[in-house]
């Protein structure tokens, strides 16, 4: 196992030692390194010996003297050096199984690696871990972790994940909690599987482990048009979504009285489908699962209103369109209408039908380049939400940002958040 070095920071210990990008870190003090977490422990000494391999597979030993907390200045292509642990479950709701064939390989990776959970907040099932993995988590105190629960009732979790060992979840969570590992949890809620009484049991079981179980997020299942030969699945109806919102609101009130925070949070889609008002920001308690989409709409709306309130003039350049999912459009366009009335501009959000995944996928983050181009034909200025592009500037349909700009007959800009969007619209 080797860590491929992607960059060496200028004037760092590594640069001064002659280490170059493209070389490989093979060992520290003779010990093979599995990931950047383990590396941080191995390089803590004031004198270390690095085994480095160059592009011609020649290895050399480099002795580095340093302060205890001084960084080497190395960056790596991947956080794990021994390969990402992948998921061998066959979940009835798995989004990867609903991907169209022939896309880039990274879209089909079903990672279930506890190290990526600790580092980046990726959700893991705990079903693809060995005893030594649990020991490593506890030994190095990897906390918090993010766990895909789905259901605490053993037979339901086994059924949903098509894994006869999936029902051992609570004993594993209890082991981690007793060792001082805090946990954020997620439930992908599927009609007829883990809603109703099953969802209530899941809430009661997880709430009983608070505060070590810090949060419980409930998001609705997503269904694409590519479900051939998969387990039949349907979306929640409006009345069903409303019932879940009402039930979770009661639980939140209970938890706020008991813990001083909501503890359980719903994905925005439930409120939008039920046509119920989003909770105030205070009920999201600092948005601990915003990377999971929890509270994203409320956060955007509040930031927009704060910035837009300070904006009185607009330079009246070319009016812009902002592509969004059909679900977000309903709550975002009124914000822009008020902005236009105040500034005299004529900007607009455009709801984009997701032809790539199917119209049942209506969130902005899953829009693709081709669908956005089709929806924005004839427009002269477009501001893309940054969430539609990955770190390599690719849309989910593999269209690059550069190719999008070439195909769009006008000005193309990007906005990371509401603040940036308001600033761009004011120019």
Give a description of the structure.
- Residues 4-53 form the PDZ domain.
- It holds the Pfam family PDZ_6.
- Residues 219-413 form the DUF512 domain.
- This protein is an alpha/beta fold and 427 residues long.
- It is 33% helix and 17% strand.
- Strand 8, helix 7 (196-207) and strand 9 form a beta-alpha-beta unit.
- Helix 8 (238-259) crosses helix 9, helix 10 runs parallel beside helix 11 (326-343) and helix 10 (296-308) packs parallel to helix 14 (418-425).
CATH topology of the largest domain, which one?
pyruvate-formate lyase- activating enzyme
- The percent of residues in helical segments reads 25-40%
> Averaging pLDDT over every residue, what do you get?
94
Please tally the helical runs, counting DSSP H or I stretches of 4 or more residues.
14
Major sheet size, sense and barrel closure = 6 strands, antiparallel
Spell the H/E element sequence: EHEEHEEEHHEHHEHEHEHHEHEHEHEH
Q: What's the alpha carbon Rg, rounded to whole Å?
A: 24 Å
User: What's the CATH class label of the largest domain?
Assistant: Alpha Beta
Overall structural domain count? 3
Give the strand tally.
14
Give the overall shape: globular
Low-confidence stretches: none
**Distance N terminus to C terminus?**
51 Å
Short synopsis of the structure:
This protein is an alpha/beta fold.
Topology summary:
Elements: E1 3-8, H1 13-16, E2 24-28, E3 31-32, H2 36-42, E4 47-53, E5 59-65, E6 74-76, H3 114-120, H4 131-140, E7 145-148, H5 154-161, H6 169-178, E8 183-189, H7 196-207, E9 213-220, H8 238-259, E10 264-266, H9 268-274, H10 296-308, E11 321-325, H11 326-343, E12 348-352, H12 369-375, E13 381-385, H13 401-407, E14 411-415, H14 418-425
Parallel strand pairs: 7-8, 8-9, 9-10, 11-12, 13-14
Antiparallel strand pairs: 1-2, 1-6, 2-3, 2-4, 4-5
Helix pairs in contact: 8-9, 10-11, 10-14
């Amino acid at each position: 196992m080797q860590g491929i070095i992607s960059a060496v920071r200028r004037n760092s210990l590594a640069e001064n030692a002659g280490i170059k990008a493209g070389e490989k870190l093979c060992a520290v003090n003779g010990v093979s390194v599995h990931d950047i977490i383990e590396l941080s422990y191995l390089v803590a000494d004031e004198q270390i010996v690095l085994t480095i391999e160059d592009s011609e597979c020649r290895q050399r030993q480099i002795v580095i003297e340093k302060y205890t907390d001084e960084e080497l200045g190395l960056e790596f292509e991947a956080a794990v050096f021994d390969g990402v642990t992948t998921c061998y479950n066959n979940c009835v709701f798995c989004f990867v199984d609903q991907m169209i064939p022939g896309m880039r390989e990274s879209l089909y990776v079903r990672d279930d690696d506890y190290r990526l959970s600790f580092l980046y907040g990726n959700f893991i099932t705990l079903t693809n871990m060995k005893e030594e993995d649990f020991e490593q988590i506890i030994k190095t105190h990897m906390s918090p972790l993010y766990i895909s629960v789905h259901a605490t009732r053993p037979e339901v979790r086994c059924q949903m994940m098509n894994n006869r060992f999936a029902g051992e979840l609570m004993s594993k969570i209890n082991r981690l909690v007793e060792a001082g590992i805090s946990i954020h949890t997620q439930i992908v809620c599927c009609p007829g599987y883990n809603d109703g009484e099953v969802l209530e049991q899941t809430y009661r079981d997880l709430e009983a482990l608070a505060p070590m179980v810090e949060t419980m997020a409930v998001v609705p299942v997503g269904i694409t048009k590519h479900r051939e030969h998969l387990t039949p699945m349907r979306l929640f109806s409006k009345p069903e979504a409303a019932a879940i919102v009402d039930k979770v609101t009661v639980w939140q009130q209970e938890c706020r009285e008991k813990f001083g925070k909501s503890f359980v949070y719903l994905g925005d889609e439930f409120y939008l489908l039920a046509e119920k008002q989003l909770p105030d920001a205070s009920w999201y308690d600092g948005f601990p699962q915003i990377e999971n989409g929890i509270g994203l709409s409320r956060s955007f709306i509040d930031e927009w209103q704060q910035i837009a309130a300070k904006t009185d003039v607009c330079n009246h350049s070319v009016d812009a369109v902002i592509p969004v999912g059909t679900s977000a459009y309903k709550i975002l366009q009124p914000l822009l209408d008020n902005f236009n009335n105040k500034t005299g501009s004529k900007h607009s959000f455009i709801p984009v039908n997701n032809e790539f995944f199917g119209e049942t996928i209506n969130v902005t983050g899953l829009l693709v380049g081709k669908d956005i181009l089709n929806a924005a034909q004839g427009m002269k200025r477009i501001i893309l939400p940054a969430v539609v592009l990955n770190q390599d500037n690719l849309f989910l349909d593999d269209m690059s940002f550069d190719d999008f700009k070439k195909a769009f007959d006008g000005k193309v800009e990007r906005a990371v958040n509401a603040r940036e969007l308001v600033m761009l619209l004011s120019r």
